[in-house]
């Protein structure tokens, strides 16, 4: 049983325990530092945690010379929060059609060092639509990194009609330059793994050749099938590449790292009024809907694939013999280890024990030094236990659907989705749209009113600090005090945690907020009906 | 009772209504009692369904608007003996701003005429209950204007000086005394206060009702629920009013529609501009304090905190004028209903904080309500009064700038007098709607400007402030040229005029922060410009002046001008005549320069803000003759003033014509070439008494002529100068300007301008009889020049205008303008003085009164000795040959 959640409650009251997502002995350093992971023992005493006193954690830290940097100035806080922010505005007149997407704001805040979350955004150039995705890696960032580079190509290929695929193949065959497939919208920190590009391309080409073989002229997959096919195909390619290996030892090590680490993916495809969300794991897509009274409500477009989802538990239990019913999901984890119930990579939960041993033995030496890779999950009888197959949701956008928030679980475990939508909605519509205060029949004194107004004013001025809705949301996610208001002290503490401790208090947070154009959305809807 | 109705509607409540109806019935016997109040407020539906009595088919006056302003006009008209007055109200009486306004009647207003109106309103409301029997909630609470800093305290002391002149009691007091007068005020950050013991609070709807009752008693017919759709006109006269219940023929129409006055003006056949715009205005009502606040507690005006506070039903009523007002109704009335205005607490937060800082004990006090009461504001913070320029019989009284209650009584009285006698009994030019024209009627302009005006109500107003919004509307073609040369701008009637030119290399930031009651930091810059005007030559762009051309086929133009102007215009072609246009009383309606450019063609140059007023004055007196043609040519000409002894050299070089006084005597006009440009009207006159020329240049030549003048002028030391230099020059030479020194109540005799009156002819010009009479009787007030002595320019407060003048310790007048004379190295104030009346009738001014007396000018409570003069220092005038000036001067000095 893990006690960290309790121990940390003072600091991050709403956060469910962020550490416990990982299975046992991982690359993650926490095991040696904290007696809180599944394989370690529960502290014998019921007294506050020996290392992390519950009462006044601040004082505890202050004694440590490492932690003198608590008092960040507001500009310092801002520079940390804004380091990874990125905004993209869809040009208003692209000559073809006015887009239903006005643009998006994205940002990420690391807790792991290096960060294990990734994000991607791109416009499909051969087909219509825009792709946005957040990827939450675990046991390293390799798998999430591979997804951020590759998944959208797989989706784009799957969406292409037969003819386009043929043209593509013909161009490659003839050595002609390819017409671009995706236009990426990347932050400078979002990088591609240069060394692996040839291998990635070859796998992708094999995929489109198969797509050509399987389809006939005039045919293309619908977005639902395309997303499904792309997700499954990429995961199988990851697995295959790890099994085949590579002559280049760096690449060989790389593909193994990708396959042995894991990542969840939450991807949205938006084309006109059609919004498809493909989700694998515990990332989440939430739609911000503006009600007639101006307030915002949350409409969730994905299901979390974890132990809180009864359907998922039932699915996994159903896929394995009844004898494993008690072991396949233990302590809310897959095989007692993994929090997300669906993921890319993570071949330790997919391959047979023999295959795992075989691949590891032939693998590069670096792998053998790693305890984690050698470790076989307990009660591992009937693999695979894990799949990358996404759950796909279709939503037809309405004028009242104002924005879509894609976030990794680092966001959702600190803020309730309703709160997320409220914060973003109020930010995007501006302060003036805030619910006006009315006294009504209540007994309010002038002093109380003054206090209330001062607080509202402080909140409004925060919104002006941020030019990016995602940054604004992160500010709330990290800096909210017990009253639900951002306070600088909390922010300053949370952001000045040393690298090795940050992960104890929060998870990596990655957010993409896409804003819809209500005029276009309403218009297309009418056009579609007529 | 509906919750948004703040005021207990005692007077309008059903319980009292029958009494009112019976009263109305006996006072207006011709009408059915019930018809007076066609739909009494909130009565049972039985009454609602009663058919309202039909409107009369004709009336003399139709007043639109049943708020406090409209009822006040009706009341005063009736008092002056008018009959057949109909007052129309679209909803219920006093249902607009009147119903919601805060009910403070204070005389603390920025200009004297407003103080006068407020003072009159106060005494009117005080006696209204006695007169009508309707309770008005009048309590003489007095008020306290607080000063948090020395500058504010100075402005309050200046106000106190002005109020003293009017005989309105007021005391400058210390913070300690404030806490004696008001139990709640936190005085720790105050430097002083002004106590106005006469100020009062009332219940505005009740006053409204009392006025309506009194008016009805005098026979005014009041019809509620009647909407005026538009006003019908024929040949520039009001003929009828079209309502949703039929038309009423009438001679006069009065637009008192408050917030909707603009729209109503736009709705008439000939559009009438009523430049006003609404802003939301908030005030807070509290529940009673634990120890209820006495109704007699003084009103507090904490202008630095931007709030006012009065006692209200044991608690407080507190509102303010915030820095960031919310303009409203820009797109018209359909936007939002005045009854359903939203409270906005976030917007009110700064004022709530200011209130709690001023009265910390209120923290525990409970909120009753936040009231949103839209007020209408005008482009210059003063109300709109008078007959509209284009339409005879169409009067306006609106745009009260959140002082509707304080002004309504006095403004109603003045407007009634205006309609009765042709002009009010006081100079109301600062409020005259003719100071504005169509150019101020843009909705965008108004929206932007009122956002500046509303905070200005409580801003500290220092001498020579300028509006920052709604600028660069009218500019000279040289604007950009001058701007790049460091011009700093002021605005007059929408026109940008350079104040002064900042030399290259000067720190601009410190110069822009020149807002002070003391010596401003442009002092040396303007000094250098003045020096250049005196010793070399300067160019001043004076394009803003109003320019008319009056032409006729025969001598109709001359005949008209001979009738309107006091001076003789039957002069040879090419002569310039300075003349006043006088009213029947002999007072200045306009002061202008007229050039006879052809036998039957005259070029009339008037002050900038005369554009609408002078036009309507001329039009009003013009016979309906197609041969006589008046044109506004202000926009056609750029006017450059070349001022200084070397002006003739510059012009001579540019035109190859000798410009010496021998060849081009003073007060002459010639069309000639300047540089390549031909047809420039060159006039040997300046508006300051310095030698020099005015060039009236067709606008397409403006840049060329300016460039030529500047390049040729280089060797003569030419430079740009601005209006501040001009002001200093004209005031030190005792030149009166219309609008500042001259007004419709000042005659030429009172300002020593008898030489500009054609007494020697027998032409019967307008005002002649009054002037002859005055010449017989002697003038009872006289325009004088006061040179301050023992006044330290560096350390002492500077005079502005409106300062009291004392003679031998007795109040004898006020200043009208002032400037520092760089030549005399003294401050010069111009103003009017009058001897004390001994037997009640005005006493005549004698030379001894001026010459033998110890004069003092009171600046914010401190008196500075001054030397009074009836004539200017002749040494200030450059020695040059004059054709007429010499005669004028000798005349002047002989007086």
UniProtKB/TrEMBL annotation, chain A:
Species of provenance: Oncorhynchus kisutch
Catalytic reaction annotation: O-phospho-L-seryl-[pyruvate dehydrogenase E1 alpha subunit] + H2O = L-seryl-[pyruvate dehydrogenase E1 alpha subunit] + phosphate
Give GO MF terms, alphabetically: [pyruvate dehydrogenase (acetyl-transferring)]-phosphatase activity; metal ion binding
| Family according to the record | Belongs to the PP2C family.
Q: Which CDD domains match?
A: PP2Cc (cd00143)
Which cofactor(s) are needed, names only?
A: Mg(2+); Mn(2+)
Top-rank EC class of the record's enzyme: hydrolase
- Pfam families assigned: PP2C (PF00481)
Instruction: Tell me which EC number(s) this protein carries.
Output: 3.1.3.43
Keywords, in A-Z order: Acetylation, Calcium, Hydrolase, Magnesium, Metal-binding, Mitochondrion, Protein phosphatase, Transit peptide
Q: Where is the PPM-type phosphatase domain?
A: 101-516
Q: What is this protein called?
A: [Pyruvate dehydrogenase [acetyl-transferring]]-phosphatase 1, mitochondrial
Q: Which residues cross the membrane?
A: none
Self-association or partners: how does it assemble? Heterodimer of a catalytic (PDP1) and a regulatory (PDPR) subunit.
What role is this protein assigned?
A: Mitochondrial enzyme that catalyzes the dephosphorylation and concomitant reactivation of the alpha subunit of the E1 component of the pyruvate dehydrogenase complex (PDC), thereby stimulating the conversion of pyruvate into acetyl-CoA.
The record ties this protein, via PROSITE patterns, to:
PPM_1, PPM_2
Report the subcellular localization: Mitochondrion
> What lineage is on file?
Eukaryota, Metazoa, Chordata, Craniata, Vertebrata
InterPro entries, A to Z: PP2C (IPR015655), PP2C_BS (IPR000222), PPM-type-like_dom_sf (IPR036457), PPM-type_phosphatase-like_dom (IPR001932)
In the UniProt record, what gene is named as encoding this protein? PDP1
Recorded GO cellular component terms are: mitochondrion
From TrEMBL, chain B:
Q: One cellular component GO annotation, for this chain's record?
A: mitochondrial matrix
Task: Keyword check for Transit peptide, yes or no.
Answer: yes
Q: Where is the FAD dependent oxidoreductase central domain?
A: 422-476
Predominant cellular place of this UniProt entry's protein: mitochondrion
Please report the stretch or stretches of sequence annotated as the Aminomethyltransferase C-terminal domain: 781-873
User: What family is it from?
Assistant: Belongs to the GcvT family.
Q: How does it assemble?
A: Heterodimer of a catalytic (PDP1) and a regulatory (PDPR) subunit.
> Could you tell me what this protein is called?
Pyruvate dehydrogenase phosphatase regulatory subunit, mitochondrial
Per the UniProt record, the source organism is Oncorhynchus kisutch
């Amino acid at each position: 049983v893990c006690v960290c959640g309790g121990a940390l409650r003072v600091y991050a009251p709403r956060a469910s325990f962020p550490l416990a997502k990982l299975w046992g002995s991982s690359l993650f350093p926490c095991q040696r530092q904290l007696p809180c992971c599944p394989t370690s023992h529960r502290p014998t005493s019921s007294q506050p945690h020996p290392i992390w006193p519950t009462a006044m954690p601040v004082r505890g830290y202050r004694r440590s010379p490492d932690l003198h940097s608590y008092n960040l100035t507001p500009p310092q806080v801002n520079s940390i929060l804004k380091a990874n922010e990125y905004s993209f505005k869809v040009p208003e007149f692209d000559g073809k059609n006015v887009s239903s997407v006005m643009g998006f704001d994205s940002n990420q805040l690391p807790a792991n060092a290096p960060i294990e979350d990734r994000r991607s955004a791109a416009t499909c150039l051969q087909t219509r639509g825009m792709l946005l995705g957040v990827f939450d890696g675990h046991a390293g960032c390799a798998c999430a990194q591979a997804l951020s580079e590759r998944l959208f190509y797989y989706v784009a290929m799957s969406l292409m009609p037969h003819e386009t695929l043929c043209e593509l193949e013909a161009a490659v065959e003839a050595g002609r330059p390819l017409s671009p497939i995706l236009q990426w919208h990347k932050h400078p920190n979002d990088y591609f793994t240069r060394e692996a590009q040839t291998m990635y391309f070859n796998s992708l080409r094999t995929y489109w050749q198969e797509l050509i073989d399987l389809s006939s002229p005039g045919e293309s997959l619908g977005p639902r099938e395309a997303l499904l096919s792309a997700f499954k195909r990429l995961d199988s390619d990851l697995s295959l590449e790890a099994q085949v290996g590579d002559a280049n030892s760096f690449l060989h090590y790389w593909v193994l790292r990708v396959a042995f680490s894991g990542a969840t993916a939450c991807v949205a495809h938006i084309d006109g009024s059609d919004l498809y969300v493909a989700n694998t794991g515990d990332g989440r897509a939430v739609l911000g809907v503006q009600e007639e009274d101006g307030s915002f409500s949350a409409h969730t477009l994905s299901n979390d694939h974890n132990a809180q989802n009864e359907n998922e538990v039932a699915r996994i239990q159903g896929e394995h013999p009844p004898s494993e019913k008690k072991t396949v999901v233990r302590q809310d984890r897959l095989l007692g280890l993994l929090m997300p119930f669906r993921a890319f990579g993570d071949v330790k939960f997919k391959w047979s024990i023999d295959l795992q041993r075989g691949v590891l033995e032939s693998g590069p030496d670096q792998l053998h030094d790693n305890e984690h890779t050698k470790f076989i999950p307990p009660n591992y009888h009937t693999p695979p236990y894990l799949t990358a197959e996404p759950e796909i949701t279709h939503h037809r956008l309405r004028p009242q659907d104002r924005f879509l928030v894609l976030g990794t679980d680092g966001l959702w475990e600190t803020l309730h989705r309703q709160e997320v939508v409220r914060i973003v909605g109020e930010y995007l519509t501006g302060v003036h749209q805030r619910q006006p205060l009315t006294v009504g029949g209540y007994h309010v004194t002038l002093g109380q009113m003054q206090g209330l107004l001062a607080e509202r004013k402080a909140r409004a001025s925060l919104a002006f600090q941020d030019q990016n809705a995602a940054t604004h949301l992160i500010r709330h996610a990290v800096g909210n005090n017990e009253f639900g208001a951002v306070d600088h002290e909390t922010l300053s503490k949370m952001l000045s945690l040393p690298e090795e401790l940050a992960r104890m208090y929060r998870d990596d947070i990655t957010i993409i907020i896409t804003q819809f154009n209500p005029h276009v959305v309403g218009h297309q809807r009418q056009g579609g009906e007529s | 009772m509906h919750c948004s109705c703040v005021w207990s509607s005692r007077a309008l409540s059903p319980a009292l209504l029958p009494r009112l109806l019976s009263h109305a019935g006996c006072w207006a016997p011709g009408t059915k009692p019930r018809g007076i109040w066609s739909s009494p407020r909130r009565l049972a539906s039985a009454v609602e369904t009663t058919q309202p009595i039909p409107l009369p088919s004709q009336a003399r006056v139709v007043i639109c608007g049943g708020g406090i302003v409209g009822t006040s006009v009706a009341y005063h008209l009736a008092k002056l003996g008018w009959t057949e007055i109909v007052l129309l109200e679209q909803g219920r009486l006093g249902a607009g701003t009147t119903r919601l306004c805060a009910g403070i009647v204070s005389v603390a207003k920025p200009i004297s005429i407003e103080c006068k109106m407020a003072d009159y309103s106060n005494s009117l409301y005080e006696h209204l209950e006695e007169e009508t029997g309707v309770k008005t909630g009048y309590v003489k609470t007095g008020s306290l204007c607080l000063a948090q800093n020395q500058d504010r305290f100075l402005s309050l002391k200046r106000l106190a000086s002005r109020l003293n002149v009017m005989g309105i009691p007021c005391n400058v007091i210390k913070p300690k005394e404030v806490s004696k007068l008001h139990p709640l005020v936190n005085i720790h950050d105050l430097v002083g206060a002004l106590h106005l013991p006469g100020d009062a609070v009332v219940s505005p709807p009740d006053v409204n009702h009392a006025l309506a009752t009194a008016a009805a008693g005098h026979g005014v017919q009041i019809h509620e629920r009647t909407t005026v759709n538009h006003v019908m006109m024929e040949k520039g006269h009001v003929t009828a009013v079209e309502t949703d219940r039929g038309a009423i023929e009438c001679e006069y129409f009065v637009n008192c529609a408050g917030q909707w006055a603009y729209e109503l003006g736009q709705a008439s056949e000939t559009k009438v501009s009523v430049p006003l715009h609404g802003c939301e205005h908030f005030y807070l009502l509290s529940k009673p304090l634990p120890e209820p606040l006495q109704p007699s507690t003084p009103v507090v005006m904490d202008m630095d905190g931007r709030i006012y506070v009065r006692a209200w039903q044991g608690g407080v009523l507190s509102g303010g004028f915030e820095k960031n007002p919310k303009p409203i109704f820009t797109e018209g009335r359909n936007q939002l209903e005045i009854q359903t205005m939203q409270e906005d607490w976030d917007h009110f937060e700064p004022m709530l904080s200011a209130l709690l800082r001023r009265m910390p004990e209120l923290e525990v006090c409970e909120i009753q309500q936040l009231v949103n009461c839209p007020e209408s504001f005008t482009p210059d913070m003063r109300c709109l009064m008078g007959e509209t320029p284009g339409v005879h019989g169409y009067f306006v009284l609106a745009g009260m700038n959140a002082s509707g209650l304080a002004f309504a009584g006095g403004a109603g009285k003045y407007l009634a007098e205006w309609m009765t006698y042709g002009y009010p009994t006081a100079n109301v030019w600062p409020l005259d709607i003719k100071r504005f024209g169509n150019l101020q009627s843009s909705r965008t302009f108004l929206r932007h400007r009122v956002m500046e005006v509303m905070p200005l109500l409580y801003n500290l107003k220092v001498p020579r402030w300028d509006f920052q919004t709604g600028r660069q509307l009218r500019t000279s073609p040289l604007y950009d040229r001058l701007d790049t040369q460091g011009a700093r701008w002021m605005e007059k009637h929408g026109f940008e005029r350079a104040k002064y030119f900042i030399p290259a290399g000067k720190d601009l930031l410190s110069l822009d922060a020149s807002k002070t009651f003391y010596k401003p930091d442009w002092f040396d810059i303007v000094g250098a410009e003045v020096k250049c005007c005196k010793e070399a030559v300067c160019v001043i762009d004076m394009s803003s002046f109003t320019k008319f051309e009056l032409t006729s086929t025969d001598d109709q133009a001359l005949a008209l001008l001979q009738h309107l102007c006091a001076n003789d215009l039957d002069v040879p072609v090419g002569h310039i005549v300075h003349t006043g246009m006088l009213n029947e009383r002999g007072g200045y309606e306009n002061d202008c320069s007229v050039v006879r450019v052809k036998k039957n063609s005259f070029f009339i140059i008037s002050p900038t803000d005369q554009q609408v007023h002078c036009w309507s004055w001329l039009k009003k007196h013009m016979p309906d003759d197609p041969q006589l043609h008046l044109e506004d040519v202000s926009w056609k000409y750029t006017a450059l003033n070349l001022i200084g002894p070397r002006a003739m050299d510059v012009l001579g070089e540019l035109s190859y014509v000798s410009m010496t006084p021998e060849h081009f005597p003073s007060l002459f006009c010639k069309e000639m070439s300047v540089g390549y440009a031909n047809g420039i009207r060159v006039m040997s006159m300046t508006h300051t008494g310095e030698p020099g020329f005015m060039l009236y240049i067709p606008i397409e030549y403006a840049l060329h002529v300016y460039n030529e003048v500047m390049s040729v002028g280089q060797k003569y030391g030419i430079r740009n100068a601005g209006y501040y230099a001009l002001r200093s020059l004209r005031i030190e030479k005792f030149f009166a300007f219309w609008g500042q020194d001259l007004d419709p109540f000042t005659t030429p005799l009172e300002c020593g301008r008898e030489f500009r009156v054609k007494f020697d002819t027998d032409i019967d010009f307008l005002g002649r009889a009054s002037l002859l009479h005055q010449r017989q009787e002697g003038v009872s007030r006289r325009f004088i020049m006061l040179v301050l002595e023992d006044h330290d320019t560096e350390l002492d407060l500077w005079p502005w205008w409106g300062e009291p003048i004392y003679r031998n310790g007795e109040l004898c007048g006020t200043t009208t303008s002032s400037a520092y004379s760089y030549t005399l190295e003294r401050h010069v104030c111009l103003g009017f003085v009058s001897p004390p009346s001994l037997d009640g009738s005005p006493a005549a001014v004698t030379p001894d009164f001026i010459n033998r007396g110890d004069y003092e000018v009171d600046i914010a409570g401190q008196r500075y000795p001054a030397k009074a003069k009836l004539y200017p220092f002749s040494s200030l005038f450059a020695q040059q040959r004059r054709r007429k000036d010499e005669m004028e001067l000798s005349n002047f000095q002989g007086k």
